[in-house]
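Take a specimen:
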Amino acid sequence: MALWGRRVEGAPEPFDATWRRGPHEAAWDPVIRRRGRQEPGVRVAAFGHDVQFWGAELLELLDGSIRIAESRGDDPLVYLCTPDAPTRGSSAAASMGTVPQGSLVLLSESEAEEPIVLHPDEARSFEAWVRQLPGG
């Protein structure tokens, strides 16, 4: 079927809108951008807040194109990164000493907060979940 010259595809594939592993949880949260266009987003419970990341930026992180994804919106600013992403000598790098490779780490801009670590099995589960989301 065509509307205004554009092809309309069938119904979207079903997907799991929430991810939960131990104390960690995230949810699909589409974001309205310019001109009312909806883009995939992911809301993550971290440091007592729900913070949102762009879905595309998470995919870049998981593909290795970038090493740090930054939350969007207002406070608090939260980063999702790989253990080797923080600059050597930084307080963030010092907190990564025992974090195994293959993990993902949530860091708060407030250095008073302890990093939240998604250990390798949790990180793989999170990655599989992000990749199955619409637009993933």
User: Anything to note?
Assistant: The first helix runs from residue 55 to 63. Confidence is low (pLDDT under 50) at residues 1-8. The helical segments are 55-63, 91-94, 120-132.
